[in-house]
């Protein structure tokens, strides 16, 4: 067995999951998002004393607006860079291809929900539909589905960020260049942009705090924090447990390479 194949038996071995370009994009997105939330919420919740203390003076309020626009430019620049990244780099194209939803993702979502819900297992434990479940054990959902490189939750988050960024940038520009907006559109279009921008910001904030933070950092498998976004590395154990299909594909690839190398070495031996 090759050294690479042997390494996959070592649970502590670390494998690259996020390259440098992807980690930098994640950090820029995180920084811009945090600043946008901190500097945008005072407009939505201006009656809160916390925001009044923080941005109550004319100077601090001006700085708030300046930081908000700088962060918006960061988000726009990041979005443009990401488009070029997925179009013109090999890693970017592979990343985007892996993020495309498939029918399996919808099935995985259903099976994951049913596994944690445990309703069918409860019915069997109560002696209800016992014969059906004995003949069709699939419907008991005893185990979680096998996830690939990205599971349905990660794909949902990615496309939510893509859609949310598009909406926020479009409505934000309409509000930033208000004179231009109302010069070519009715006033109600500007008002709609303000409403969409505000509620999309709240939705994004809640999605990050409730959904993303728990799934990536606070759940028992990763607590207190996943370090993949910093190091770009994932251990073999984590890969095998969280993304078994990717792990199996990697093992199969190494086996094929080992067989191919063995054939080449025999073909190039002096005896031949």
List keywords for this structure.
272 residues; mainly alpha; globular
Tell me what you see in this structure.
The protein has 272 residues and is an all-alpha fold. The chain contains 14 helices and 2 strands. Strands 1-2 form a two-stranded antiparallel ribbon. Helix 4 crosses helix 5 and helix 4 crosses helix 9.
Layout: helices, strands, pairs:
Layout: H1 3-7, E1 14-16, H2 20-44, H3 49-54, H4 58-88, H5 90-99, H6 103-117, H7 119-125, H8 130-135, H9 152-176, H10 178-184, H11 187-218, H12 228-231, E2 233-235, H13 236-242, H14 244-267
Antiparallel strand pairs: 1-2
Cross-sheet strand order for the largest sheet: 1-2
**Poorly predicted sequence stretches spanning 5 or more consecutive residues:** none
User: Beta-sheet strand percentage?
Assistant: under 5%
Number of helices: 14
Helicity level? over 70%
Distance between the termini: 23 Å
| E-strand count | 2
What oligomeric state best describes the polypeptide chains here? single chain
Radius of gyration: 25 Å
Largest sheet: 2 strands, antiparallel
Envelope shape: globular
Overall pLDDT score: 89
The SSE order reads HEHHHHHHHHHHHEHH
**Structural class estimated from helices and strands:** mainly alpha
Task: Summarize the structure in short.
With 272 residues, the chain is an all-alpha fold. It is 75% helix and 2% strand.
């Amino acid at each position: 067995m090759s050294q690479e194949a042997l390494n996959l038996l070592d649970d502590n071995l670390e494998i690259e999951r996020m390259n440098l370009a992807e980690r930098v994009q994640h950090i820029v997105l995180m920084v811009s998002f945090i600043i946008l939330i901190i500097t945008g919420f005072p407009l939505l919740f201006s009656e809160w004393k916390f925001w009044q203390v923080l941005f109550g003076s004319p100077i601090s309020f001006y700085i708030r607006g300046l930081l908000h626009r700088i962060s918006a430019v960061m988000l726009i620049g990041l979005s443009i860079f990401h488009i070029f990244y997925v179009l013109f780099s090999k890693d970017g194209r592979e990343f985007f291809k892996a993020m495309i939803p498939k029918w399996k993702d919808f099935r995985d979502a259903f099976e994951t929900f049913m596994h944690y819900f445990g309703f069918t297992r409860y019915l069997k434990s109560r002696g209800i539909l016992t014969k059906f479940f004995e003949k069709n054990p699939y419907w008991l959902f005893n185990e979680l589905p096998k996830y690939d490189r990205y599971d349905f939750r990660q794909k949902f988050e990615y496309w939510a960020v893509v859609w949310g960024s598009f909406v926020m940038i479009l409505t934000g520009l309409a509000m930033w260049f208000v004179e231009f907006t109302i010069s070519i559109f009715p006033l109600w279009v500007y008002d709609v942009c303000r409403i969409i921008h505000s509620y999309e910001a709240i939705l994004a904030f809640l999605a990050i705090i409730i959904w993303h933070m728990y799934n990536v950092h606070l759940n028992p498998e990763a607590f207190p924090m996943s370090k993949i976004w910093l190091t770009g590395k994932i251990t073999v154990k984590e890969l095998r447990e969280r993304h078994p299909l990717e792990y199996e594909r990697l093992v199969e690839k190494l086996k094929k390479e080992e067989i191919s190398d063995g054939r080449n070495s025999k073909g190039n031996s002096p005896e031949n």
